Input
Amino acid sequence: MNREQELSRLRSEEIWDLVVIGGGATGLGIAVDAASRGYKVALFEKNDFAKGTSGRSTKLIHGGVRYLAQGNIKLVKEALRERGILLKNAPHITGAQPFIVPVYSIFSFLFYGIGLSIYDILAGKLQIGKVSWLGKKKVLEHLPSIHPTGLKGGILYYDGQFDDARLAITLGLTAADHGACLLNYMDVKGFEYSDKKISGVKCQDVLSGNEFRILSKSVINATGIFADHLIAMDKADQPAMLTPSQGVHIVVDPIFFQGSHAMMIPKTDDGRILFAVPWNGKVVIGTTDTAVKEISDEPEAFDEEIDFIMRNFNQYSGRKLERKNILSVFAGLRPLVKSTNKGSTALMSRDHTILVSVSGLITIIGGKWTTYRKMAKDAVENAIFVGKLKKTRCITDDLRLRGWTEEENPTQYGADLAKIKEIEKENKIYAEKWHPDYPFTRAELIWMIREELAMQLEDVLARRTRLLLLDAGLTIRIAPRIVEWMAQEMNKDEKWKADQLTSFNEIAQRYIL
Ligand code: FAD
Output
């Protein structure tokens, strides 16, 4: 993907079949679905792809053990099916992860053992590993850091794990391979109408300030927690549909949680689930579920949320975590569909909802990363109806995503790694590493700029790689070197470099306690 080429396509295309607003899991999934059916698709994201909720998840591809406990069998079954499809179509960014639920009573042994066996059965043929009941010794072998006092044993089960922002970029590349036009830093500011029906969007290039009027037969609002804003722009007299709920994660060194197995704490001191999951050489611990009134592009963790995570983790851990041990903290907002239920957001539905306004704006909200493909399929079916598009069949259940490979232990680029190796041959300095502790090279940075629409320093440090989430302090230290290399590749001046460093450092400070 090249921004200049995408912009010139935007200028030359007269009318699109579908415009998608929002470049998170939902919007990018829709772009893949629609483009692979042969429709002319344009997608606009006001920030970077996955800058919102989609880059801040727990990184699990799961049916949702918690939803099983809530009795939502349909959602769990659907999500487990989607889990199987995603693991098959994107093996380079996903994988099976073993989890252990430590148990401290015979009742818990039976309760979680039976529950997780049902979870396994619901996955049917798409099961990724067998549930087993482990004795105390085996649990301590797999989770050497946990507190042994009172431990009776544990239940071993499997779920999927992935890199959320990398999957978002991969979806973008896949959609582009099928002809979609994708632009990050393109803010949708309003709609075009013809006979009171939406006939396109007005948008602005955030990087140049240029404005565009884009015509389209159908428009999908996939803006997550911002969906109500877009509905308000459409001036439809529609009550707010969303209740945002914040979820926070902390990231720590594996010294605090050793081994390759993840831990699922089934009941925190306020009755929620907490995960500690090895990820990219560090451990991600979370999450919380806090109802919030304000929504923002950079939500911030509350002190109580950090304390909650540490307190509950420390109850299980032999090595106590302190605030100074936290390498990074990130917060995301769940776009939960409003219900009449006045209780906790933890109990609200994770199902998705599609609404078509009188003007023809299609809004899709809710759901989970795991179910993005099914959500996309449903949204595109609506667009076909609203935009009177020629009917076509969804092909994404068998569609391999960009970089698909059979190789064992592939990198995040999958089959594209060979193209990065070609860049490396252009100049011997391109083999230089970003930092001795991480594998990323200057050639990869060039690839991210040339092919993955990385436009800003934050794009490469937070989403093309996940360094900001893994060790925020380290990213501040390497930022001057990376911005220098970016400026050379992108032909940018001193002012651009200085501005990039200032805005990145401001953002990175929010990830450091
Ligand atoms: P977003 O990712 O927020 O994307 C919407 C995009 O629209 C944003 O990028 C925004 O910038 C853009 N936008 C807004 N307004 C405009 C405009 N005017 N013009 C252009 N663009 C605009 N799910 C799982 O399956 N597994 C998990 O482990 C998991 N963990 C989670 C943990 C937490 C803490 C949270 C909060 C959620 C988790 N989820 C998980 C749920 C999952 O992350 C979300 O359901 C999913 O990412 C939502 O994607 P989205 O595309 O709808 O929203």
